[in-house]
Amino acid sequence: MTGLLGVLLPAVPLVAGLVGLLLPPVSRGGGARAGADPARRVAVGLGVAGAAGALLVAVALLARVGASVETSTTWVDLGGLRVTLGVRLDGAAAVVAVAVAAVALAVQVYSVGYLRAGPHDEAGVDVDHRYPPYAAQISLFTAAMLLVVVAGDLVMLLVGWEVMGLCSYLLIAHDRRLPGAPAAAMKAFLVTRVGDVGFLLGIALLGVSAGSFRIADVLAHDHSAGTLTAACLLLLAGVAGKSAQFPLHTWLPDAMAGPTPVSALIHAATMVAAGVYAVTRLFPLFERAPAALAVLGVLASVTLLLGALAATAQDDLKRVLAWSTVSQLGYMTGALAVGAPAAALFHLLTHAAFKALLFLAAGAVIHALGTPLLSRMGGLRSTMPVTFWCTAVGLGALAGVPPLAGFWSKDGVLAAAEAAALDSAGPAPAWVGWLVWLAGLAGVAVTAWYATRLLLRAFLGAARPPLPPHDRPIALHPHDPPAVLRVPMLLLAVPAALLGLAAFWPGFTGRLGAPEGEWTHVGPALLLPLALLVAGAALAWAGWRRDTAADPARALGPLGPVFAAGFRLDDVQHALVVRPVTALARFARAADERVVDGAVEGTGRGATGLGGALAGLHRAALPRAAAGVLAGALLIGLAAVLIGGVA
Amino acid sequence: MSLVQSVDNVALLPAYLAAGTAVLVLLADLLVARAAATVAVAAAGAVATGLGSAVVGAGGPRATFCVAADCSYVYGGRAALVGALFALLTLGMLALSGPALRAGRSPVGEYCFLLACSMTGGVVLGAAGDLITLIVALETLTLPLYVLVGLRRGSLASAEAAVTFFVVSVVATTVTLLGAALLYAVTGGLHLDRLGALLAGRPDLLDVPLTTAAVALVLLGLAFKVAAVPFHAWAPATYDGAPLPVAAYLSTASKLGGVVALLAVVQRALPAEVTGPVLAGLAVLTMTVGNLVALRQRRTVRLLAWSSVAQAGYILAPLGALALAAGRTADARAAAYAAAVAYTVFFVVLELAAFAALVALRPAGADGGTLADLRGAARRRPWVAGAFALALVGLAGLPPGLAGLFAKVTVVRALLDGGAGWLALVVAVNAVIGLAYYLRLAATLYAPPAETAGAGGTAAPAEAGVAAGAGGAAGSRPAWAVLGTLAVATLVAVAVGFAPQLVLDLAAR
């Protein structure tokens, strides 16, 4: 029964997605008035039903699941390599599945209101949001993530992993009106693909080493140290791609070109969570490969600080959130590196709640204002109170304000890092613990700073005049969004505020596999991050007080533009990877066109030319033809006599 | 020594039947004077000849006109096969000629008589046991064709083709006869088996340059009949100038005769040490030149003519394996002969199908026209065009033309078994070149029709008379006899494509 639930979990949204793809993608008749299009109504129904069904199944699973449950049937047996179809269910999988399904449901409902002819579409121009494929792709995305969550076999996990890559590509490029969308989608696809190659190789290495792709077999097998380290490092490449770890994080900020609900889905529930989740799934392997964990720790620390610092100087609301995701993912992978997968999962869950909330709130702001730029906002608190409070809760959780969710989970990560640093408690060397701990503490301050800045710039102070292109009356009177947007926000605000308290509930911590009381030690160790939090927030507030119209980020001085550009890593990537690759591609193309094609066409031209010449010789009158025959006979006869005579 | 020989008339029955057909056709034309009756007599005679060949052949080998152990007329399994094939080809040719004869562009009686004479030569050719019989039979096969080529009334091209064909043919025959005479001078024998035994028994004869020259001359003269380079110059002009059915006969029956004659001398009489290199050289030249020139042809029949030159190269190629010592073992030789025969059978079937389809696609009595005239043929006659395309694809050696594919595979396998990998490579390269023009022709059939499709005759101003005469017939269905021939040839091609072993077994006998 539990196994059946596990199979149903990805199957429900998968069916909803596949059926949804059959709907006509573009509303017919040009009249795309929301609600008037039957295909859109069906798509809405399918999307919401799929996500709701998945949520029901996930909750039922959470209620039933006890110890780890495995079901598997052999799918193919290739020369000693067994690929199975099966699910592997444990408490962590059930909890993550609930989070994924809940966020997916919120996103599906929110999208109904978000992707309709809004107040900022030009009057008289019907914008076709192509809702049916959009909803179907979100369902598929959810299904793929749930497949990763429940997969009992590495090949199945890989299937879900790759389908997510495809769905992210399609959804990021969904908005045809944005010029940057196709490029951003391509970038997300290519960058994650680079990592996926490593992931695929890692899985192949593990499967060949263990003789089976079943996760239980792979975990139980006694791999050689070299194989294990190599496989774990290769897997980390994939994890870095999907979970936006340095140096493969560059796709995530650009992915903001996608519709805001899609950003919420990618950042909270699906894509970026998959990498962290995959590591926790295979954590017994990583525990035995300290070198891989050390690499992961370094990457995590770099990612954490890089993301946080880059978030300080962004002017785009969604990009602030995107960089904050990069930073928070650094916390999660940092927890993994110091040997605390339960803490990583806990932070993953709280992050899913507050980041989804933040994105939906940001969507509401953008929906109302028609611009994502902080420099065009301000004073929204009075006009959009619900959005303001939701954002405040989300940012508080993000920064780690007690007792909001992020405080408890971040404290869990920091405590684990502290233990690894001071007591060498983790599987990785102590210096990794120090690195993660210090980076995490610094990150707390920086996070508090940019969260405060975001709140102050967007919602407090004086309203700033809109730009001339957005000079429409509606933008002057922003208001809270309609219920269909508001309700998902409000519902997500609950876990964003309170999920952290679940750390005190043994049923929850037990399901995540955390040691008893790990995250609940309220003591002097909590004072340090709290002090840093207050310092960061106070600095930002002080900077804003001096001039409420100006950006606190001006205090960064010349570093501001560098941070805003994400440390110019995009340029580095462009110079080191993109340009050499395109140069190589040009070279290969030139070689193909000139050398290969040239040779092929040359032979073709040569053959026809030769044929023409020979045909010309044959346009002869009868006497020459007869002479030719005689000459041929004479020559061949002579040759036969001379050569044959010698032989 | 008695001057009166006992003659085995049963062995001669197929030849009697063929010759009798010719006489009866002449009489019928004279006495009944109705075209239908003449054609019916000719067709009945062809059927009788085919049946006679098969029946006599089934009864075990027979020989007659013997001097001691050497016989000039040996009727065995291969002779029966050749006889039956010639009879069938003649029958097919009569069917294809139906529309042209009805259009009155050629005298029916003479046409059928000459065809029957040619068939007689073919039937005797298979049974020829000495060089004289062989050459006379070959000439009997060829001689009526000079006239047939030029039989189209009022066509200058036709007459020109006939003269070219005649002169070049005479030169070639001279060369063969010269070779035979020299061979007789060296060995004192003319019977094929005796020559083979003499040359094998006295290796010192091979050291005499005259022997080599004689062998080469015999081969080269016979190579003319299969239109091998450099004795091919007649083929394109002759095919193009001749009426379509005659061109079909030239490229199937006449070529089959040449192959039979070549095989007879190579297999039974002449030393492989000399024939091998000559044939290998001829094969390479023939394939390469034929395919290359075919690339540039714009007239359908010329394209088919050049392609049949190239096909002759493929037929000769397995015999070229005799050039190497590895190719002269008993097994390799048997494989090479079998491959040549098998390829010939496959080729004849496919070529007949191609010409039958072309006759069906063209107006009654018209010539082959240009490739552009065939544009959009698939829209007008999808089945005929489909059969044409299948035959072309088969000639190119691609699936789904499985018959052609197996033919090429057989040749290449025989070459590889004989250690002549380089020759196999040449075959492969030529097959690739061949794809270019075969597929272009096939694709033309399915191309959208040209703007001037309605006035197809105007594309060839020289054919103004034909166009005027055929203008009404252009849209009508082709004669059932033509379609029947096409259907039978296509069915046979498909059948041997699925069961190539039938032909391969028959060829290995």
From TrEMBL, chain A:
It holds the Pfam family Proton_antipo_M. GO terms for cellular component: endomembrane system; membrane. Gene3D superfamilies: 1.20.5.2700. The chain crosses the membrane at residues 44-63, 91-110, 140-173, 194-213, 225-241, 262-279, 291-313, 320-346, 352-374, 386-408, 428-451, 483-505, 525-544, 625-646. It is found in: Endomembrane system; Membrane. GO terms for molecular function: NADH dehydrogenase (ubiquinone) activity; NADH dehydrogenase activity. Keywords: Membrane, Transmembrane, Transmembrane helix. Its main location: membrane. InterPro entries: NADHpl_OxRdtase_5_subgr, ND/Mrp_TM, NU5C-like, Proton_antipo_N. Residues 151-419 form the NADH:quinone oxidoreductase/Mrp antiporter transmembrane domain. It is a multi-pass membrane protein. It comes from the Bacteria. GO terms for biological process: ATP synthesis coupled electron transport; electron transport coupled proton transport. Residues 75-117 form the NADH-Ubiquinone oxidoreductase (complex I) chain 5 N-terminal domain. PANTHER family: NADH-UBIQUINONE OXIDOREDUCTASE CHAIN 5. NCBIfam families: NDH_I_L. This is NADH dehydrogenase subunit L. It comes from Micromonospora haikouensis. The lineage of its organism: Bacteria, Bacillati, Actinomycetota, Actinomycetes, Micromonosporales.
TrEMBL record, chain B:
The keyword NAD applies. It is found in: Cell membrane; Endomembrane system; Membrane. GO terms for biological process: ATP synthesis coupled electron transport. Residues 128-433 form the NADH:quinone oxidoreductase/Mrp antiporter transmembrane domain. The keyword Nucleus does not apply. It comes from the Bacteria. InterPro entries: NADH-Q_OxRdtase_suN/2, ND/Mrp_TM. It is a multi-pass membrane protein. This is NADH-quinone oxidoreductase subunit N.
